[in-house]
Amino acid sequence: MSQTTITLLFLAFAIISFILEKITLGLTATLVALGLNLTGVLSVSETFAGYVNSNVILCVGMFVVGQALFETGMANRIGGVVTRFAKSERMLIVAIMAIVGVMSGFLSNTGTAAVLIPVVCGIADESGYSRSRLLMPLVFAAALGGNLSIIGAPGNLMGVNALQELGETTGFFMYAPVGVPMLLAGIIFYALIGYRLLPDGSGAQLDKAQAQRDFSDVPAWKQAASLIVLVVCILAMIFEKQIGVKLQVSACIGACVLVLLGVIDEKTALASIDLKVVLLFGGSLALAKALETTGAGALIADTIVGALGANPSPIVLLLVIFIVGCALTNFMSNTATTALMVPIATSLAKSLSADPRSMIIAVVIACSCAYATPIGMPANTMVVGLGGYKFKDYVKAGLPMIAISFALCMVLLPILFPFYP
């Protein structure tokens, strides 16, 4: 059996396993990486290179920095202050989406949603507004905000890594030219039109595990320190070239400072590192390497190009990539979908001798558009009971957001990142 066939079989296994999730995502990716080594497709160094990839280190460092903001209650404080200024339901929706969107751009989007869900539930109960009309915009904003920076979601770094391996220049706000308009469009849509599509039902009460934590015993200096370190880390990443310190180093320094100061203890810091993401990232990079070296990725790309006829337009391929990525991500993990689609998008760009940035950024953004199902992303699932949502509620309120994201991507990407500059 050829190495190309073996790689394609492992790809098929990964797709099926990611969709069914009978095996955890991280374990699936690791099994694929080990299988590619045992079958001789990848060497030992190629198999494990992804697990110590610089972007994995960046992800690990920011897990700790972000967790400090959650552990000290600073995230709750920020969310509570902003939302209390809203004087009407629509103003509250705008305030919630704005603060969640911005926070998700620099922290875990799932973590941001988890922390602010109890805050918003409390505000809804106090003000008399329906939770179901506030929680859905919250989780949608968490996904939209993830596209503001390269650390907004784990899948973002997969796109960054792919471009770096191709020798392309990347930046902290690489996704922002598309992500910012998408977030603004989402806020405007739900403020003016989309609020009519939001369900008006009653959900379950918060249980003790979900209830808003009391952070009154946390010293104010710890809250301030968590925010200061986050801001300094972000600034260091933005001005990476000017200060000569790599993003990964800035993230690790920030994490170490927080532990040394006692803002977050070592045990909590280590527990905040999501090993599932690390394992999924590392194993997926091994699969991407195999798709590249064996020519399996090129074979898939050639098949797609061939199916679209002679000399297909890059715009058509961009459309296909977005639709496929968006369809998959609503039924399986966003990160897993990104891991599968990025190598294929890279191969498609190579087959057309086109600039890969548009294709890869389209994949990353498409794989964040998980608005139409309650299982599309963890944050969607978190609010099903609290908002009293049904499957059709996500379809009704989420599909227009997908359509808006699609339209913006199809217009902006070819302009911002031309196929043939």
Outline the structure in words:
The chain has 421 residues and is mainly alpha-helical. The chain has a domain at 74-212 and 294-416. The chain is built from 22 helices and no strands. It has helices at 3-20, 25-38, 44-48, 54-71, 74-83, 89-104, 109-127, 132-145, 154-165, 176-192, 220-238, 240-243, 247-261, 266-272, 275-293, 296-307, 314-329, 334-351, 357-366, 378-382, 384-387, 391-416. Helix 4 runs parallel beside helix 13 and helix 15 packs parallel to helix 18. The longest helix has 26 residues, at 391-416. The radius of gyration is 21 Å and the shape is globular. The two termini are 40 Å apart. The model has no long low-confidence stretch (mean pLDDT 85).
Instruction: State the low-pLDDT regions, or none.
Output: none
Coarse shape: globular
Portion of residues in beta strands equals under 5%
Structural category is mainly alpha
Key structural traits:
single chain; 71% helix; mainly alpha; 0% strand; 421 residues; 22 helices
Strand and helix layout:
Blueprint: H1 3-20, H2 25-38, H3 44-48, H4 54-71, H5 74-83, H6 89-104, H7 109-127, H8 132-145, H9 154-165, H10 176-192, H11 220-238, H12 240-243, H13 247-261, H14 266-272, H15 275-293, H16 296-307, H17 314-329, H18 334-351, H19 357-366, H20 378-382, H21 384-387, H22 391-416
Structure at a glance:
By secondary structure, the chain is an all-alpha fold. 71% of the residues lie in helices and 0% in strands.
